[in-house]
């Protein structure tokens, strides 16, 4: 499947999971419920004026106001808007935008809902998704780990494997796991199935360091 097809599948599966869990289910996005997450996704794609506050903190108050107003809509309508995708005039409707801008976004938020449940397990990914996640991770890892005070090496254990130095330095900490687990940890998620190897003090420094996604 292409990256666009994979992103659309993650979008569809996330919408189905949101409906199944209901509007008040927990997520891994802080205190957000599934309804809060659905409102965030709708605002991100349909309200560029509010979306700017997601990356530019002085305008976060406006994003919060628009998101709260959006969240007041009936939950089934919010999930329908998530499922059907961005409006025609949205930048996310441009050719290729779904695969480029939404694949990781919807994968991570799909897992945010799945892994907020106590019985979660890593899922078997569609063909090609692991490779796409690994490719995106190698592009963003240097930025993600730039504030970590130790070296970080990522070792992929699924697919064709692979090693990527996310941050040079000593002492070195090695994260070993599948592409999906490595990417989720790089996005700050703790509910992951990973091996973290290194000197205990270095591992402790890594685990307590802020990430920059």
Structural class: alpha+beta
Count of all domains: 2
What about the largest sheet? 4 strands, mixed
- How many helices? 9
Strand arrangement within the widest β-sheet reads: 2-1-3-4
Number of strands: 4
Low-confidence stretches: none
Radius of gyration: 18 Å
The dominant shape is globular
Average residue pLDDT: 93
Gap from first CA to last CA:
27 Å
Helix content: 40-55%
Output the helix-strand order: HHHHHHHEEEHEH
* Beta-strand proportion: 5-15%
Which helices and strands appear, and what pairs or packs with what?
Layout: H1 3-21, H2 34-46, H3 48-55, H4 60-71, H5 75-84, H6 97-114, H7 129-144, E1 151-156, E2 162-167, E3 172-177, H8 179-186, E4 195-197, H9 200-208
Parallel strand pairs: 1-3
Antiparallel strand pairs: 1-2, 3-4
Structural write-up:
- The protein has helices at 3-21, 34-46, 48-55, 60-71, 75-84, 97-114, 129-144, 179-186, 200-208; strands at 151-156, 162-167, 172-177, 195-197.
- The protein has 213 residues and is an alpha+beta fold.
- It has 2 domains: 3-114, no CATH class; 129-208, Nonspecific Lipid-transfer Protein, Chain A (2-Layer Sandwich), CATH 3.30.1050.
- The protein starts with a helix and ends in a 5-residue tail after the last helix.
- The relative contact order is 0.13.
């Amino acid at each position: 499947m292409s990256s666009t097809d994979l992103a659309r599948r993650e979008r569809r599966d996330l919408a189905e999971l949101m409906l199944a869990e209901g509007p008040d289910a927990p997520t891994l996005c802080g205190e957000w419920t599934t309804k809060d997450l659905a409102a965030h996704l709708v605002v991100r794609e349909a309200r560029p004026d509010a979306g700017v506050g997601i990356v530019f903190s002085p305008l976060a108050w406006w994003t919060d106001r628009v998101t709260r107003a959006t969240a007041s809509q009936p939950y089934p309508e919010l999930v329908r808007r998530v499922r059907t995708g961005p409006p025609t005039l949205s930048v996310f409707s441009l050719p290729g935008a779904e695969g480029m801008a939404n694949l990781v976004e919807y994968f991570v938020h799909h897992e945010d809902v799945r892994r907020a449940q106590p019985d979660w397990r890593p899922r078997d990914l569609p063909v090609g998704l692991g490779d796409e996640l690994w490719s995106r991770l190698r592009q963003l890892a240097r930025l993600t780990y730039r504030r970590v005070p130790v070296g970080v090496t990522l070792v992929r254990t699924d697919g064709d494997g692979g090693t990527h130095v996310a941050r040079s330095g000593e002492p070195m900490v090695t994260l070993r796991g599948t592409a999906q687990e490595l990417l989720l940890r790089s996005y700050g998620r703790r509910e992951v199935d990973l091996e973290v190897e290194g000197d205990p003090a270095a591992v402790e420094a890594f685990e307590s360091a802020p990430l920059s996604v």
